[in-house]
Design brief:
The chain has 460 residues and is of the alpha+beta class. 17% of the residues lie in helices and 37% in strands. The structure holds calcium ion (CA). Residues 396, 398, 400, 402-404, 407 line the site of calcium ion.
Amino acid sequence: MSKSRSNVLHILLTATAVLLAFVLTAAILVPGVYVRAEESTGGDTEEVGDEVTVVSISVSETEITLKEGETYAMKVTAKMSDDSTKDAEGLTFTSDNADAATVNENGVITAVAEGEAVITAKGETEDIKCTIKVTVTKGAAPTVVSIKADVEELTLAAGETHSLIITATMSDNTTAMITGLTFTSDNADAVTVDENGVITAVAPGEAVITVASGTDDISCTCRVTVSAPETHVVSISVSEEQIRIGTSDKYTLKVTAEMSDGTTKDAEGLTFTSSDDEVASVDESGVITAHKSGKAEITIKGESDEISCVCKVTVSDSNIRFETLPSTGERVATGFNPGVTVAKTISDLAAAENIAPESITVLNAEGAVAADSMRMGTGMTLTVEDSSYMVVVLGDTDGNGVINNKDVKVILDYLTGASHLLDSRANNLAAQVIKGKNDVTIENALFLQRHLYGLENITQ
Ligand SMILES: [Ca+2]
């Protein structure tokens, strides 16, 4: 070797040594700078200085099977350069088939649908990674756990409808609309429901609608109240617009309210006033008391002035009594002295009420004007001013104005159904039944007659 070549080699070696010394010194003195010495046997990283680094990461399970909807949290362990292990941090997770399984930033895998996916966890560098293979199988079809209506209580007006919306809670905690429901009402008079869950309010009342799932014996209910329609009083009317009462009589007004829904009911909250308290007064309950002969108008008012009606009262001090039969509502005139004529009846009544005789008419039972000389008999019609009454001469059942055995027979026949009796026997029986002898007095006949007409409650 020449001297010059030897010198050149010496310079190169020296320069190399200096460079190495510099690099080594820098590696030792500057934290974080180290030399990685790859070794063919392991792939481990040999550290230089205090830093412990991630050598590799791994998962506890490399293959898992999940059902649809299930989740699985990946557990990734990092093996460190000092041979220690710890939970891996700062990883990124990816799925190669999000249709089958997804993974979030925390490594939680969610099985989406039947299929396979490989989930990869990556560290800070490409070569630090691990994978888990996920097989997703079909989950069992969820079952209905409970069903619930959109409303559990409902108030409707008659004619209104409501469509029930039924939501099912499933065994996988999801909610769903389900089919195969049946709907029943426990009171179809008030509320009906069809097969689609449409409720119809029929009439005021209550009903419980039961919704049953076709399977699993699961049901829910909805209580429906059908409210009564709002109604108000349209008008009021009195049962008799014109009455004729005696000077010591009382009469109770009966007032009916016509409602906006077409129904009627007893009127309430009324006020009563009389145009002449000296003739007839009225109390707060609608009871009229007659005081002296004359005329008065009783005005009945409802809650507003527009709601009112009038009853015209004539107070008469005649012997004739004017009554309305409670059983039939028929207006009758009674109190006639037996045998009194039509002429005398008219003149006495005209005088008693201080009215013209021409305003009084009497018709016979056939509807023709009765002759003045006729006796007043049961079945005639007495019209005073504009009011008509059926004449009832107590005891005179056949209308001839005389009370005799024939009248009593009619009464007995009616009472006993004994119309098959021969006249003579019936007459005798009538007489005997009443007094035990053949004399039939007016008192006897009145007793039976009043009983028949219900004018008196006979207890004796
Ligand atoms: Ca008679």
